[in-house]
Specification:
155 residues, alpha+beta, Arc Repressor Mutant, subunit A, Dna Ligase, domain 1, 2 domains, three-stranded antiparallel sheet, 6 strands
Length: 155
């Protein structure tokens, strides 16, 4: 994202907060900017550590609340639900992709597949269902964790 795009998204977040009667505090701005400076999946704890390394004073509770607001406003997406935490990623122009998640090393592989998207549309049409969103996560072992062994499909 360009600086201009980030500024536009920051303004959109400001407006969202205002519509909810909330303020765009310096702490929320710091969290917003750090989240958008992160160009990979991240956890709230990653953000906290990054801010602390830069001597930024933001509480863990403020980070969690702000991440929740960023998800609600459509700026971030929760993509992986672990046992006790979520991973986040930016939402860019509503681009959609799905995830392969390695159960061993936690590697995340993003992918898109038009055949899967068409099938989901067909299922919704068959059941007269209007989809608003969906999330696909396939958990398993990546090639590295399988020791380079070839894979011929589900067992």
């Amino acid at each position: 994202m360009s600086d201009k795009d980030i500024q536009a998204e920051e303004q959109r977040f400001r407006e969202y907060l205002g519509s909810k009667g909330l303020k765009f505090t310096p702490e929320r701005q710091t969290i917003f900017r750090r989240a958008f400076a992160t160009h990979k999946h991240f956890e709230a704890e990653d953000l906290l550590l990054s801010l602390r390394q830069d001597h930024q004073r933001v509480s863990k509770a403020t980070i969690y609340r702000t991440l929740s607001l960023l998800v609600q406003s459509g700026h971030l997406r929760e993509v992986i639900f672990g046992e006790k935490h979520s991973h986040y990623e930016h939402v860019h122009a509503n681009e959609h992709h799905d995830h392969l998640i390695c159960s061993s090393c936690s590697k995340i592989i993003e992918f898109t597949d038009e055949a899967i998207e068409r099938l989901q549309d067909e299922v919704c049409k068959r059941y007269k269902f209007k989809a608003e969103s969906h999330r696909m996560q396939i958990h398993g072992l990546c090639e590295d964790c399988r020791g380079g062994k070839t894979f011929s499909g589900p067992t």
